[in-house]
Structures are given as structure tokens and as C-alpha cells.
Design a protein that fits this description.
Shape: globular
Distance between the termini: 74 Å
CATH architecture of the largest domain: 3-Layer(aba) Sandwich
Strand content: 15-25%
Oligomer: single chain
CATH class of the largest domain: Alpha Beta
Structural class: alpha/beta
């Protein structure tokens, strides 16, 4: 009988309400007493079902972007960068990445970024504006030590290497009908040395000085190689420089169409040029590359994949491991003929800066497994800094 009186009151007020004699006092009394009885008798109150039903499904990680700064679409950095991005990307649900080690870190999406070239890429990588980029070895070394065109900026000591990829050659392209037969003949001619921020621009200035070509005598322009190629085809430019892995598509097209030819870079100025172009070697562009009557003397330098030192060791370890998987070889070969040069045998040769600790870890593991005959001391050209553990970094752009 503990709840008898409240129950009787509720019944009475309910009966009055049902007879149509609803007044505010009676309605309020009925609502209050029924609510009280519900709480007192511990009657369960139905609750709406949640719209979201938890499940055992594992949500894929949010994509993290890893940028690779490349170069002009008319050069070699762009297609090679696209191939590298394809190899290391690991989007959620990728069937290719189900096989261990074929891709980079889970959830990472690598993207290429167009740029003016080596100098711009070096500065952007060192500053952490992008995680990685492609650049000429001579300029990377100069930047790391704060020399040459980087002297006023000081040492770019956040630069690290993932791998040396392939050789780049200096191309000096001249209009087929011009009277230019040597580098010295460029005096007084119209010449493009590529855009500011490109490796070509920096190298061309050194070569011109070595061969006593005064910039003051030139009709000098700084154009993208695609623009320069158009001007040569139209008879509006005498010559242009371009540093890239041979064969360069636009150069091959100009030569095959009869619009241009390659000028040899040799003679009295070669010694001075090599003295001021750190790491460059005197080489030949074989006649078979561009269909030239003879081999063409020139200079060449390695192209490096560089990265900011603050990107985590684990991330770069996985990226380096994916790069050298045999199953990914076809991606490199299909991107550009230079893919043939990208081999593990040259990965750590001629590096002017330290390897990233993640890359060094992978190469040292290969040494321990007997897959390379290089000792760890040969793999790291300079001291490798302590590991930055974890899978994050301010330069994971």
C-alpha cells in the first residue's frame, strides 16, 4: 500500500480528464503523478535508438600527403617524380599494397609538385615547404655547405639523401641554321638559360664564364625549356641550355625535325668549367641517343632524391624499401627511359650530403643480408644523424 494513495489520485485525475473535463490544474496533476510513479516504481523509459551503430570495422587512416618537388613537364624530373609517387603511395584499399613492402606507409599519398627545378627544390626541401624533391648533386652539395649561389643563405643543413637516381647531361641546343660551332660563338647571340631557380640556370652561367662568353653581349632570356624550344622552332632564338637526363623529349623532337642540333661542350674552357662545377664529369652524349652524326662531348652530374631531415626515420625507411622492390621496377621503366639507370648499385654513389637515417637503415640492412657488397661506412658518405623516431614530421608535406 506504499504507493496506493498516489496511484488512487492518478486514477481519479485520469478519469476526470477522460470525461472531457480538462482543466489546466487537473492535467498538470495527472502528468506530475504519473511521472512520480514511473520513477518510484522504476518503470523503464523507452529511449530512441542511436542513428550510428558501432561495428568492428576498422576505419582506414586519414591520408597523409608526401610531396615530391620535380621540374618542368618538358624535362625528366616530372615523369620520374610521377613514377616515384606511384611506387610509394599507399592509399586505403590498394590491392597492390597488400603485399608487404611494396608501398610506403599505410594511408600515405605521394604527390608531385611542379617547380622551377633544382635550386627551388633544394630551398623548399630544406625549409620544410615540401618533404622531398629531385635536384642536381652539385647544387645539393653547395647548398649543404653554404657555398656558391647559396653562400649568402648559409648552410642548408636540413638536407638529406634518399638515393642517387641517374645521370643528367648538359644540353646546349642551337638552331640548325645558325653559324654557332663552339660555346665561344654564343657571344652576341640570343640565348635562354632556363628559369631562375633551375639547376640549368646556375650551371649555364658558370659554363658561359668558363668559356669567356660575356653575359653583357648576349640577348639573354630565362625561359622554360618548352618555351625556348618553340622559339627555336620559329627562328626566334639562337640557342638554349638544358640540364636533364638523356634523352630529353623536347631535345629529341627538335633534332629529329631538323630545327636544332647539339653543340659540343669542350675545348679550352672545359677545365675551368669542371673546376667550378662540383662533381661534374666530362662525358659523351652517344650518337644513338639523339641520332646525331657523332658522339657529342658534354658534362654530366647525378640527380638525387633529397628529403628534409625532420621527416621520420620510419617513414623514409618504408619509402626507401618500396623504391627498391623488384616488383616496382616496371613502374620506373615505363615512366622514362632513364628508369633503366635507377638501380640499387648506384643508390649511394657520389652523395654530397648525408643519407637520411631511414634510408641508411634500409641500406645497412641490405648489407647485413648480403644483398649489396657495400659496407655501412661506404653507404653513409657523412655521419648519419640520430634517428628521429615516429611516423610524423614537420616536413611531411
Amino acid at each position: 500500500m506504499e504507493y496506493g494513495i498516489p496511484a488512487l489520485i492518478c486514477l481519479l485525475t485520469g478519469w476526470i480528464w477522460s470525461r472531457g473535463r480538462i482543466v489546466p490544474v487537473i492535467a498538470t496533476a495527472w502528468l506530475v503523478c504519473t511521472a512520480s510513479l514511473t520513477l518510484a516504481l522504476d518503470i523503464p523509459v523507452p529511449r530512441p535508438k542511436p542513428s550510428f551503430q558501432p561495428s568492428n570495422h576498422i576505419t582506414p587512416p586519414e591520408p597523409s600527403f608526401f610531396k615530391i618537388a620535380t621540374g618542368s613537364t618538358g624535362g625528366t624530373y616530372f615523369p620520374i617524380g610521377e613514377a616515384l609517387a606511384a611506387i610509394i603511395s599507399h592509399p586505403a584499399g590498394s590491392e597492390r599494397c597488400e603485399q608487404e613492402a611494396l608501398c610506403g606507409p599505410r594511408g600515405m599519398q605521394a604527390v608531385t609538385q611542379f617547380s622551377n627545378g633544382s635550386v627551388r627544390n633544394i630551398r623548399a626541401v630544406n625549409a620544410g615547404e615540401v618533404a622531398s624533391g629531385l635536384a642536381q648533386a652539385d647544387l645539393v652539395g653547395a647548398a649543404y655547405r653554404g657555398q656558391g649561389i647559396f653562400a649568402q643563405e648559409g648552410a642548408h643543413d636540413d638536407l638529406r639523401a634518399i638515393a642517387s637516381l641517374y645521370q643528367e647531361s648538359v644540353h646546349l641546343i642551337v638552331a640548325s641554321q645558325s653559324d654557332i660551332t663552339s660555346v665561344a660563338d654564343l657571344n652576341g647571340k640570343s640565348l635562354s638559360i632556363d628559369r631562375k631557380g633551375s639547376g640549368t640556370n646556375a650551371n649555364a652561367r658558370i659554363i658561359l664564364e668558363a668559356f669567356n662568353v660575356s653575359l653583357a653581349t648576349l640577348e639573354l632570356v630565362e625561359l622554360d625549356p618548352l618555351e625556348a624550344a618553340d622559339l627555336i622552332s620559329n627562328g626566334d632564338l639562337d640557342a638554349f641550355f638544358f640540364v636533364g637526363g638523356a634523352p630529353v623529349t623536347i631535345v629529341k623532337e627538335l633534332i629529329s625535325s631538323g630545327a636544332a642540333r647539339l653543340l659540343p661542350i669542350d675545348g679550352p674552357g672545359m677545365a675551368a668549367a669542371r673546376n667550378n662545377l662540383m662533381g661534374f664529369e666530362q662525358t659523351l652524349l652517344q650518337a644513338s641517343i639523339y641520332g646525331t652524326p657523332n658522339d657529342v662531348p658534354t658534362l654530366s652530374i647525378g640527380a638525387l632524391w633529397i628529403v628534409n631531415s625532420n621527416v621520420s626515420q620510419d617513414r623514409i625507411y618504408q619509402i626507401t624499401r618500396a623504391l627498391w622492390q623488384a616488383e616496382n621496377r616496371d613502374i620506373l621503366l615505363e615512366s622514362h627511359i632513364l628508369g633503366e639507370q635507377i638501380t640499387l648499385a648506384r643508390a649511394v654513389t657520389g652523395l654530397p650530403i648525408p643519407l637520411h637515417s631511414g634510408a641508411a637503415q634500409y641500406y645497412e640492412e641490405l648489407t647485413l643480408m648480403g644483398e649489396t657488397n657495400k659496407a655501412p661506412a661506404e653507404i653513409t658518405p657523412l655521419d648519419v644523424e640520430p634517428a628521429n623516431q615516429g611516423d610524423s614530421g614537420s616536413a611531411n608535406n
